[in-house]
Structure formats: C-alpha cells, structure tokens
Write a structure and sequence with these properties.
94 residues, mainly alpha, flat
C-alpha cells in the first residue's frame, strides 16, 4: 500500500518521483565517472601511460597497492590436502 508523503511542500524534501528518477539514472554505476581522472582509467585498463602524469593525477599509490594485492591473490592456490577434503565432502553428499 502506497501513501503520499504529506511533507513534500517543505523546501528540504525531495519529491519521491524525482528521487526515483535520480536513483535510476545512477543505477548503472557505483562511482561517478568524474571521481577518477581518465589517466587512471587508462592505466587500470592496461594502456601505456606517462608515469609522471599518473602520479600527478592522485590515488596512484592506492591503485598500485590494489594491483599488487590482486596479483598476489591470483597466484594463491588451495593447499592439496584441503582441496582433497573438499572433494571428499562433495562425494559424500551425493
């Protein structure tokens, strides 16, 4: 059951229909495109960029750490005994 908001006439209130349109417009992305400089997007996409420009853009050190951590986690493997125990538990459930 929907109820009308009786306080829509107040200046600090946003009309629910307007709020819904704004939410739908933003639903296709979590971070506004202007939040990161384009050079960071190119670097994260693997394109060659000038390192001096990249450092000047800001947030380079953060993304460098994120990249290093992602690479480290990509190389991780499940220990063999654990993998065997998981597979054995799956077989028992069948």
């Amino acid at each position: 059951m929907m109820h009308e908001d009786p306080d829509t006439h107040l200046p600090d209130r946003i009309d629910p229909a307007v709020r819904r349109e704004e939410d739908e417009a933003k639903s296709d992305r979590e971070v506004p495109l202007a939040a990161m400089p384009p050079i960071l997007h190119r670097w994260l996409d693997g394109e060659p960029v000038n390192e001096a420009e990249l450092r000047a853009a800001g947030a380079y050190e953060l993304w460098l750490k994120v990249k290093a951590e992602a690479e480290r986690r990509r190389r991780m493997h499940t220990p063999t005994p654990l993998g065997g125990a998981i597979m054995e538990a799956i077989r028992k459930d069948r």
